[in-house]
UniProtKB/TrEMBL annotation, chain A:
Protein name (database record): ATP-binding protein
InterPro entries membership: P-loop_NTPase
Organism: Chitinophaga qingshengii
Gene3D superfamilies: P-loop containing nucleotide triphosphate hydrolases
From TrEMBL, chain B:
InterPro entries noted in UniProt: P-loop_NTPase, WH-like_DNA-bd_sf, WH_DNA-bd_sf
Protein's name in the database: AAA+ ATPase domain-containing protein
PANTHER family in the record: ATPASE DOMAIN-CONTAINING PROTEIN (PTHR34301:SF8), DNA-BINDING PROTEIN-RELATED (PTHR34301)
Top-level taxon: Bacteria
Length: 391, 653
């Protein structure tokens, strides 16, 4: 297992997150379309690629990244291209036969795909086409001929909406409506599922266009951090890749100091631990402490700075002031109870502070500990970063 | 000598591979990662980051050769490297086109350009070109490309945001292309959260060469050019010629290669002559950089270079006499051109400094007034004086062994006695001495050659004629730091003679000839050094504190505008190493109270940096490290800290 950055972790490099995989699988099985929300670096794309590479539950998966698409027709064209390129669709025999025959009412409307030497080919000529209609008919044709479900894994979909909306907001809304119609079409929905992800929130993007209703059919799933057991397992795997082991106290220190187990934080700790030790070394509490110090140093600033810059984007004026002060206070005091949160709101002249706190919880900054009835930073690493760089 | 300093790709392949002797661990790991990937799915993309001259192009080239020479990998992967050729690339489609052209020309992808041509003026140019490229790759066994692009920031600057999104999409979706990019700085395209390439690359940092790596590079060059004997002689007798230039140049291999040339031409040079010659060699490059800047940016660079330490915009407005918004706009441009580095602070006032330390030094030495140049020369001398950490540790280790054998006591009493008497004596003598000596005394005195007199002193001292030796230096101007430092170095290296000398000074009725209190300072520093070292080993905290108080009081009594010499400051750092390692807080605080960032900014900041690091005050540590890194290497910064840690463990042995 290699310590990867940026690129989706696939095959041997993917740390299998069975809970998430099962959740997506169950949700698809129950007939839902899905949106997966999580910030960058949490592992959304890796999860999609896992479904794709392992053909979970025998479905046909097609992955497409739509980040650079700026027009609706381009989206549908790219979808068709990606589907045609996909080996699973090329091997769909009945579908290919239908295309060859073209006697079916759906197949005869598909102009951009043809059969060449028994393989599907996208006709990339420059004739203007209604790719929305082509795409829709393609899905209809698939649904009536194929028995295996087709799952379209659409990455960075919110960015596509934002791209279209920045040129013409009305076009973005129409685009969203068209997508909803396709998803809910009684024939298409028999065999085709959609999974959307993106590092900018789909809900916020759509809300900005006043079009929330266009996505209210999507089941919203969250990519959660690893459990303690999974985190330790990944930690050991990554260390062994670096030819290091860890002693029992080192494991305890790791659990205490990382606590919020997203793979990226674990990767950073391993990277730093490898830097301060030699191959073959046993990592102890001391090295873990030093490695965390390394993670918090100036050179890794860019990994955390976005947490602060995102605050400025999410919250405006008084809300930003409150969120900023709340997190600073929390970082310096380590925990805050509800009274302290309310008192701070009075100081900042804010009344709807609960909404701000809820947003901070939803966006992965903080959690509420039921036992102590206190707010805490999700990640002790982030808390220490906040204390060092923001407070 | 076929050393291509600026274009390693023009170098003969065998010579290049032979000379690739630094960064080998980084290369080995990187190549291991690359060669073990199957490239069935999109694999890790890399960004190599290092300042100009750090060896980024060489690392890209080394990877290119490694892939070409690997029997298994070369059957699948074609390395395609773009350096200056990227000037013709203005949009993403051009990038695919350039790759296709390269493949047609060098790898027999016949017909590919012909197929691309009809699309060149079409709307789908980028997409069509990419698809054609993939189609041709899919038809071959060698169906993967390792794209090596130098200075990638310049390319990103030319791309529209949507093209960068598309590039990310391609790199994340298609396994055919793996990108290994290089950049002198971490560009905002990979830092900012709202950028498509946010944290997309694995960053490989080419840090400054350590002194050891610099030595290895020089030795390897010597071996290639059959000059081992000559070079080994220089490295043995004057290692500071390498370590000092390595620090001044911020550890860039290019400077070390130039230094090697200098060694061949000028075997008996010194650090200053080396620096001058190396600066001469880089002048065409740096002058060209300055000449092509617009006048306002030249003014800003001038102000920043001469100031040397990081500056805020408000400081620049005073020096450059331009409005702050104009300066900010120009700074943004200079940042983009990778000439200026911005360090973010917690306030809105960021700190700015020149990106490249060696460029800064070049500017100061070529265009600065003597006051500016003196700063560089001072730093150089300080680094030379501060080079021998290992020697310090070794001498303490020896003394610790002696102490365990019970053999240290007698000598210690003698040293303490001499030291205390010496400070008592100069307490009485320095008052009138300070008034009488100084420049007036020397300027009215006879003209003498100080170096000859110091040579004579050393000669007589060698013979054991201390009285005669002292007489020879009656007229030496010890107000000049270089004379004082030479004496200090001599006494430090000849401790037995120091003791006799101190004895003579203490017992003789009058030393009217040796009236310069600055000469006494050299003696005072060395006596304090040996006494405090003993005190630390023998756990005599009171003695250490008392001796430090005496030394500081003496320095203070004759501190004049000439200040404290480089070697004296290096000695103070060594004394602080002793005090910190033994945790003699009283003595430490006495020194800290005396310390002042105006008297000794570098030493003062180093000590504060140690304290901040030790007390986990990371914000203060980070601010101080920004300041210190403008003149020192991380290795030097850590030298003081590791020196203390090492000393602590020796004392516990």
């Amino acid at each position: 297992m290699k310590n990867l950055v940026g690129i989706p972790a696939r095959h041997d490099n993917f740390y299998q997150r069975q809970r998430e995989v099962d959740l997506v699988d169950r949700t698809l099985m129950s007939g839902n379309n899905i949106q997966i929300a999580a910030p960058r670096r949490v592992g959304k794309t890796s999860l999609l690629c896992y479904l794709l590479d392992n053909k979970i539950s025998g479905r046909h998966y097609v992955y497409i990244d739509t980040e650079s698409i700026t027009e609706a027709h381009e989206f549908y064209k790219k979808m068709l291209e990606a589907i045609v390129r996909s080996p699973v669709i090329s091997s769909a025999v009945k579908f290919a036969a239908g295309l060859k025959d073209k006697s079916d009412r759906f197949f005869n409307k598909i102009k951009s795909i043809s059969i060449l030497n028994n393989a599907l080919e996208f006709n990339n000529n420059l004739t203007p086409r209604d790719y929305h209609a082509e795409f829709y008919h393609f899905l209809l044709a698939y649904a009536v001929t194929e028995e295996t479900s087709l799952v379209l894994l659409i990455d960075e979909f919110p960015q596509t909406i934002q791209n279209i909306g920045s040129i013409n907001p009305a076009a973005a809304v129409t685009f969203l409506q068209q997508n909803r119609e396709i998803r809910l079409d009684p024939v298409v929905s028999l065999k085709v599922r959609f999974v959307y992800t993106g590092s900018i929130g789909l809900n916020q993007t759509v809300a900005a266009l006043n079009a929330t209703a266009t996505i209210n059919d999507l089941a919203s799933l969250e990519v959660k951090p690893l459990t303690e057991e999974e985190a330790l397992d990944l930690f050991h795997l990554l260390l062994s890749q670096e030819n290091r082991t860890v002693d029992a106290d080192g494991d305890i220190a790791f659990k205490e100091m990382v606590r919020w187990f997203i793979p990226f934080h674990i990767q950073l700790v391993v990277q730093e631990a490898a830097l301060i030790s030699s191959p073959g070394a046993v990592i102890t509490r001391l090295e873990i402490t030093q490695a965390i110090k390394g993670v918090l140093s100036q050179k890794h600033k860019n990994h955390f700075a976005h947490y602060y810059s995102r605050l400025k984007v999410h919250f405006r004026n008084g809300a930003f002031l409150y969120a900023d002060e709340f997190l600073k206070l929390l970082a310096s005091r380590k925990r805050l109870d509800k009274t302290a949160a309310a008192t701070l709101a009075t100081t900042c002249g804010i009344t709807d502070f609960r909404q701000i706190i809820e947003n901070l919880m939803y966006d992965g900054y903080i959690e509420f500990d039921d036992t102590s009835q206190n707010y805490l930073f999700n990640s002790p690493i982030l808390m220490r970063w906040w204390e060092d760089h923001i407070c | 000598m076929s050393i291509f300093l600026y274009n390693p790709d023009k170098k003969d392949k065998t010579a290049f591979l032979d000379e690739f002797v630094v960064r080998t661990r980084i290369f080995d790991h990187l190549f291991w990662e690359i060669s073990t990937d199957k490239m069935i799915v999109p694999e890790q993309h890399y960004m190599i980051v290092g300042q100009r001259g750090a060896g980024k192009t060489s690392m890209l080239l080394r990877l290119k050769y490694a892939v070409e020479d690997d029997q298994v990998l070369s059957k699948r992967v074609i390395p395609v490297m773009f350096g200056d050729e990227q000037y013709s690339i203005g949009e993403l489609g051009n990038l695919w086109e350039r790759i296709a052209a390269y493949l047609e020309e060098n790898h027999g992808f016949e017909g590919i350009m012909g197929e691309i041509e009809p699309h060149i003026h079409e709307r789908d140019y980028e997409e069509a070109t990419f698809n054609i490229l993939i189609k041709y790759l899919d038809q071959r066994k060698q169906d993967r490309i390792m794209l090596l692009i130098d200075n990638i920031g310049r390319l990103f600057d030319k791309f529209e945001i949507n093209e960068i999104r598309r590039l990310r999409q391609v790199l994340q979706t298609w396994p055919h292309i793996r990108l290994v990019a290089a950049s002198p700085v971490i560009v905002h395209y990979i830092v900012d959260y709202d950028q498509p390439l946010h944290e997309f690359f694995k960053i490989i940092r080419l840090n400054s060469l350590t002194d050891e790596e610099a030595m290895t590079l020089i030795r390897k060059l010597a071996s290639i050019h059959h000059e081992e004997k000559k070079i080994e002689q220089i490295l043995t007798t004057s290692p500071e010629r390498v370590t000092t230039l390595n620090t001044l140049s911020d550890g860039i291999p290019r400077a070390i290669v130039l230094l090697f040339r200098e060694f061949l031409d000028n075997e008996h040079g010194d650090v200053l002559s080396d620096l001058e010659r190396v600066l001469d060699a880089v002048t065409p490059l740096y002058k060209h950089t300055m000449d092509k800047l617009p006048p306002q940016q030249q003014k800003i660079i001038d102000a920043m270079a001469l100031h040397w330490e990081p500056m805020e915009v408000k400081d620049l407005t005073k020096t450059v006499r331009l409005e702050s918004k104009v300066i900010s706009a120009q700074l943004r441009q200079l940042e983009k051109s990778q000439l200026v580095l911005r360090s973010r602070t917690k306030t809105k006032n960021h700190l700015y400094q020149l990106e490249e330390r060696f460029f800064n030094i070049w500017y100061v030495m070529r265009y600065g007034k003597s006051i500016h140049r003196d700063k560089v020369i001072w730093l150089m001398k300080f680094l030379v004086a501060w080079v021998d950490k290992e020697g310090l540790a070794e001498s303490v280790r020896e003394d610790v062994k002696e102490e365990k054998r019970g053999k240290l006591n007698d000598g210690t009493f003698k040293i303490y006695e001499l030291t205390y008497s010496f400070f008592e004596r100069i307490k009485i003598e320095t008052g009138p001495l300070v008034e009488e000596n100084g420049s007036a005394y020397f300027s009215s005195g006879m003209k003498v050659n100080d170096q000859d007199l110091l040579n004579a002193f050393e000669k007589e001292a060698e013979k054991g004629n201390l009285r005669k030796a002292i007489k020879t230096i009656i007229d030496v101007d010890f107000e000049k730091p270089e004379n004082r430092d030479r004496m200090l170095k001599y006494l430090l290296e000849n401790d037995s003679r120091l003791l006799v000398l101190a004895d003579q000074l203490n017992n003789a009725p009058s030393h009217k000839g040796v009236r310069s209190s600055y000469f006494y300072r050299a003696v005072a520093f060395t006596l304090a050094y040996f006494s405090v070292k003993r005190a630390v080993i023998q756990h005599a905290e009171k003695d250490a504190t008392r001796i430090m108080s005496n030394l500081l009081a003496f320095i203070d009594s004759n501190y004049q505008e000439k200040g404290i010499s480089p070697r004296e400051q290096a000695m103070l750092l060594m004394l602080m190493t002793f005090l910190f390692s033994a945790e003699y807080h009283n003595a430490i605080w006495k020194v800290l109270l005396y310390f002042d960032d105006k008297k000794m900014p570098l030493v003062f900041n180093l000590v504060r940096y140690y304290l901040a690091t030790n007390m986990n005050e990371e914000v203060a540590a980070s601010r101080l490290s920004t300041q210190l890194l403008s003149v020192l290497s991380p290795e030097h910064m850590n030298r003081f800290i590791t020196g203390i840690q090492e000393m602590k463990s020796i004392l516990k042995e």
